[in-house]
């Protein structure tokens, strides 16, 4: 037992050893021919060996690498991107990156580097991106880390343990597109530390407490264009006045993200913003206002620069004590020159009329994802409200009536663009009132089932996508752009209703096809997006789409989004690549040809039947079939004649002058049935033949060359011989007027040929002396 356990342990150790050894081998990477190597999440313990100059990009993030040695990357002289983030690196030797003179992107974030060394970066003169976030260092090295990185454009530094920013930290950096500093627990800031950077396009600063924020702000006034403050509690924020020589600022945008503000700290923020000398944008994203709106805005003379606020953006603003909130009259003085306001997802249900009237310069207002309804909107858009407003966005609110919405907005004389998408409107009324200058209307995702004259005639852009529309028949003489995707339209709209149309997006409907004539009818159309429909790939449609050279200039999503839905054997194929067989493409011609051939065949058959008495032959066949169905053992029938005589018309002299005379004038006389004399007039001849045979005791066949050649005699035999012979009796009497060869008898009369081969028949003698014996034998045969 112990031996078995020992064996299992040894095998496990060997397997583990080989797994660990394999982790550092080049086959743990996947590299493409361009030199981009991916080694993410491979449980690597070290940088793989064997890396060469062919490697251009190396991603080893999310592994367990703890050490970077001088020789690990020595041969990667052409490396441009190195990602070592989310590892366990705690040591980097001084010359580890010495050979990486072409490196432009270096990510060392979220490792265990507690000390940073400037020797790592002194050879990285081409570096543009450096990420050192998430490492547990307290300061940015003993000496300036970045003095050799003259091409650096994006820098990310800091950690919750990062406590001190020194003046030498950013020495040598003159311009950064983005600087992100995680200074959540910053305890010391040396003045002018950030001022050494002459220009920072975007500064992201994480600070929990705002104690050092005024000093940092002073250094950024003349160097940063965009300041973003994250995860900060401004409850105790106080801002002192700035010396006059610091009032020439570059800042154009402030963003407060995940920041807590009180009424008092808001007043301090107003003081801070007052030192922005030019027009600027202010953004509050995911912030909390712990106050009642009791703002104490300084006198207008003291906040003269705040009037330069041009754009205000508020997203996801929380006001826990909103039910105790004051009115907003204290901030009216700050809004006079604001041109753009965006308030999204902040539970806004009303903009007070007095505030709307103070927003005299407002041109753009976005109140998306709020709680606006028609009744409160009427108060917000009161008389003289928003006099300069051109664009109003009320997307995803609680509007339900198009008629009331349009009537409410009549006070907005300069309104040209209105977005009321993602509201749940009732059925569209027949007529509506809208501001006179309306050019753009967005009614997408509003559950519309049909369109009426409620849509304003002045529109140049109409978006009604993602509804339940089955048709589009509005006449919009000025419309230039129509967005009607994700509906249920089966055909393109009528071009005569849209004479000025330039752009149409009608993808993901139920359109089966469109033609060159339809596209040409839109005389000014420049752009069409019609992919994602259920195209029937008919021969006509394929011929048009595959031969039209200019189609890809109009169809912006051609050919990727144009797929066949039917026929089933080409479903899912791109329209441009689909080919149909000749029979499918010329089906009409093929059917026409078959029909013509059948018609000619029927016509030819009719002519032949007429020429060769085909109808008569068919009637004969029908009679023959009827006769065939009669029972072989016929019931006892009435005998009216001693014999029925079947003969050729050319042998009528012999029959009428000799046969009839000898038999009917004999004593006792024989009663014969002759077709000339005894057939019932008007009765079908075949019925006459059959009835005569059945009513006769015997049937005399007068055989001769004339009989064999006669068509009539052939069919007479055809319809009668089976009755005579199939009943196994001797009812047939064969009289041979002249010698005939048996092979001259038709093959189908096999019974007759058999009888002539096996039984005797009467031969008419030419010698008169023997004729008396012939008549004697014939009379005896009839009586038998």
From TrEMBL:
InterPro entries: Cys-rich_flank_reg_C, Leu-rich_rpt, Leu-rich_rpt_typical-subtyp, LRR_dom_sf, TIR_dom, Toll-like_receptor, Toll_tir_struct_dom_sf. The chain crosses the membrane at residues 589-612. It is a single-pass type I membrane protein. Keywords: Cytoplasmic vesicle, Disulfide bond, Glycoprotein, Immunity, Inflammatory response, Innate immunity, Leucine-rich repeat, Membrane, NAD, Receptor, Repeat, Signal, Transmembrane, Transmembrane helix. Residues 639-782 form the TIR domain. Residues 1-24 form the signal peptide. It is found in: Cytoplasmic vesicle, Phagosome membrane; Membrane raft; Membrane. Pfam families: LRR_8, LRRCT, TIR. SMART domains: LRR_BAC, LRR_SD22, LRR_TYP, LRRCT, TIR. Its main location: membrane. Cooperates with LY96 to mediate the innate immune response to bacterial lipoproteins and other microbial cell wall components. Cooperates with TLR1 or TLR6 to mediate the innate immune response to bacterial lipoproteins or lipopeptides. Acts via MYD88 and TRAF6, leading to NF-kappa-B activation, cytokine secretion and the inflammatory response. May also promote apoptosis in response to lipoproteins. Belongs to the Toll-like receptor family. This is Toll-like receptor 2. It comes from Ceratotherium simum simum. The gene is LOC101406761.
